[in-house]
Predict the structure.
Amino acid sequence: MNIHEYQAKQIFAKYGVPTPKGIIANTPNQAATNASELGGDVWVVKAQIHAGGRGLGGGVKLAKSIDEVRELATEILGMTLVTHQTGPEGKLVQKVYIEEGADIVDELYLSVVLDRAAEMPIIMASTEGGMDIETVAEETPEKIIKIAVDPAFGFQGYHGRELVFGLGITDKKEQAKMIKFAKAVYTVYMENDAEMIEINPLIKTVSGDFMALDGKMGFDDSALGRHPDIEDMRDISEEDPDERDASRYGLSYIALDGEIGCMVNGAGLAMGTMDTINYMGGTPANFLDVGGTANAETVAKGFEIILKNPNVKAIFVNIFGGIVRCDRIANGILEATKLVDVNVPVIVRLDGTNAPEAAEILRNANIDNVIAATDLGDGAAKAVAAAKGA
Amino acid sequence: MSILVNKDTKVIVQGFTGKEGTFHAEQCLEYGTQIVGGVTPNKGGQEHLGKPVFNTVAEAVATTGATVSMIFVPPAFVADAVMEAAVSGIELAVVITEGAPVRDMQAAKACATKNGMMTIGPNCPGVITAEECKIGIMPGSIFKKGSVGLISKSGTLTYEGANQVCNEGYGITTAVGIGGDPIIGLSYKQLLQMFEEDPETEAIVMIGEIGGDLEIQAATYIKENISKPVVAFIAGQTAPAGKRMGHAGAIISGSAGTAKEKMDALEEAGVKVVVSPAEIGKAVKEVLG
C-alpha cells in the first residue's frame, strides 16, 4: 500500500525527521486559509497523487501571495496529472498540500529499501538530489552510496559515518544532523513495516539544517494488520475500482488493452497464459488470478469483471488445480452463465485435482459457447481463433 | 536418488491440527510421506490423523527423530515457527503459509542460517520427490518418477511444467517450489547445484518470473557450474510495466527485473529458453534427445 506525501510527512514528524510545515486542502479557499495560517511570504502548492514526477507534470508550483495560492490550487485541483509514473491516462488530483517555502542551498537524495540479495534493508544516498534516481544510477552510478543495515544489530555509528563521508559533509554539526536524520528514517522504515521510503530531494537549508522536502512511502501489505494507523491512511480513490472490487472476492485483477479475457489460478500461470496468448498472435485483455479458494461465486464475479471490458471477444479459463479443485471451477462457470450474460466464447482448460469430474460437469451441462481445451497450448490457440472469428 | 527429501524422510507438521494443516497433512500421508507427528501448542499428548501431537518442536524431534518440518501456521506466526524449528534441530523447514510480513521473514531467515537450517518458501507449494515424498500442497498424482529436476517460483507453473515433462514420458526426480516473496529460503543457485550432483537428474527445468534478480544470478551460476542441460521459462513477458511510486528497488540490484533481461542472460548462459510455458515439455524432449 502507498500513501501520499503529506501522510508520509506526518509519520516523519512523529519520528523527528524534519519536514517543512504544511496543511492539506481539498478546496482553493481552504488552500488560501492554510497559507495564511502557515504565515511567511512564499508557499508551495503540491498535488497529492500516488506517483512521482509531479513537478515536471505541472503539479507542484510556487506562490508568492495568498491570492496566488488560491489561483494555483484552483488550477491544480481537478486536473489530470500525467507523469512518467502514472501511465498515459494520468491521475486526478483531489488534494493539494500547502507548504511553507524553504531556503534551499543543496539538494540530496535518501531512500531505504530492502536489498533482496543481502536480505536486509539498505540506505541509499546521493548528492544528486532532485533528479530522477534512475538517471543517476545509469549515468553516474558512483554518485550513489549504498549502506546495508543488519536489523539484528541496528543502525550504528559507522553507518552514519559512511553516509556523511560519502556525501562529502565535512562540518561536524551538519554531520551530526545528517546522521540523526538518517537514523530516524531507518527507524520509520523498520517500525512501520515499510517496503520503501524515498526522500527526493532531501534539502539543506541556509541555516545548515536538513529537511525532507518530499516523501514517498510504500508498505508491506502483509504487515498492515499490525499497523491500523497506517491502514487508516489508505486512499481508495487512488486505486482502480475494478481491481478493488475484485480484491474483495479474493481475486487479483489488472486491466490490459487486449481482446482475450483471462481467468487463471496462480500469478505465475496467469502471466504464463498471457505470454502464451501473445505468442500465438492474440492479445490478453487482463490479468486475473482467482487464487487458492475459488468457488462458484468468485468465478461468477470474475466473469462479471472481465465482461465489463467491451474489448473482450473471448475468455480463456485456464486452471491447473492444486488447492483449487477443478469441479468447483466447473460449477462456477455454470453458475456464472446463469448470473451473468456471457455473450462471448469461453474456452475452458481444467487440469489437475478433480479434472475428470470437472469435464463431466461441463459435458453434461452442454452450453453452446463453452469450448473445452485439452492443454495450455490448445486452449490459447482456440481462444486466439475465437477472438479473431468474433 | 533425488534431492532434499525421499521415502525415508521423517516429517512433522507445525500447525498440524488447523484446517489447512489437517487437509494437506492427510493428502501427504496418502501420498506416502512419512509424517511422524505434529506440533500444536496446548494439544500435546493428543493424537491427530493417527499421529502424535506435541506442544513443542523440540519434543517432537526428540521423540520422532524428524528432520523436516512442514509449516502451516497463520502468517503472523510464521517467523516464530521457523525460528522454533531452527533451534530444535530441524534440518529443513518447508513454509507453505502465504502472507508472512517481509520483516518477519528477514529475521526468521537470519535465525535459520545461523542454526544451519535450510528453508523452502514461504508462500510456496513445497517440495516433492516423485512417488516417494510430498511435503506441500501440490497435486501429487501429476508427478511421475523420472529424470528431470524442477525449480519454480510459481506454484501453478510448477504443476504445468511437471505435467508436460511427464506427458513427454520423462518424469520428475524432485520438484521444488521456492516461492516468489522478497525473502525466500533455498533459491535457484543452491538447488541447481544439488541437481547437478544428483546422479538421477539428467536435465533441469527452471521457471522464473519478472522482478528481482535471482534468475540473473542463476544464469551466471549455470554458465560456470552446471553441466546438465537446463530449460527455462520466465513468466511476465507481457505484464505491463507497473505504476510504481519509486524506483529505488531496481537500482540496488542494478537490474530492472524484466522478463527479457532474464531470458537474454539465461540464453547467454547456454540455457534453452522457451517463450511460452506450453513449450516446456517439448524443450525438455529436445535437450534430452
Q: What stands out?
A: The mean pLDDT of chain B is 93. Chain B touches chain A through 63 residues (CB under 8 Å). Residues 71 and 95 of chain B are 5 Å apart (CA to CA). Chain B has ten helices and 14 strands.
